[in-house]
Design goal:
- Pfam families: Response_reg.
- This is Response regulator.
- One of its GO terms (biological process) is phosphorelay signal transduction system.
- There is one protein chain.
- Strand 4, helix 4 and strand 5 form a beta-alpha-beta unit.
- The model has no long low-confidence stretch (mean pLDDT 91).
- The chain is globular, with a radius of gyration of 13 Å.
- The chain has five helices and five strands.
- By secondary structure, the chain is of the alpha/beta class.
- The chain has one domain: 3-Layer(aba) Sandwich (Rossmann fold).
């Protein structure tokens, strides 16, 4: 699998750092990161991302679900949700946006690796 450019949207600094380190240890690049919807929109316009990993709950008034809607409408970049949310209504709304995968927190390196691999496989099949 080639090296992917991955953009991370996570508002918890410790989780963001661990996620970045894990992505790099898996052999991929982190092409940017953000803590909020608005920062992500600005950053993603300039990043050359192959994949976005986003939390559902973000800093500010907009959520990862809002970000997913924006991505689908304007950017067409595959995304993965990585979240600790357990509220069924929120999870249902998130899943309706069409994420390629949903990886629960706490971060599991193997689950993330599988999600990235599956994302790449889907991109190859549908391109």
């Amino acid at each position: 699998m080639p090296k992917l450019n991955i953009y991370i949207v996570e508002d918890e600094p410790l989780i963001s750092r661990i996620l970045k380190q894990t992505v790099m240890r898996l052999g991929h690049s982190v092409c940017g990161s953000a803590t909020s919807y608005h920062d992500a929109i600005d950053g993603l316009r300039q990043a050359d991302a192959d994949l976005i990993i986003t939390d559902i709950m973000l800093e500010g008034d907009k959520t990862g679900v809002d970000l997913a809607h924006y991505i689908n409408a304007h950017l067409k970049i595959p995304f993965i949700f990585q979240s600790s949310v357990i509220d069924e209504v929120i999870i249902d709304a998130a899943l309706k946006t069409g994420p390629l995968m949903f990886v629960p927190k706490p971060l599991d390196r193997y689950a993330l690796s599988d999600a990235i691999s599956a994302t790449y496989a889907k991109a190859v099949v549908y391109s």
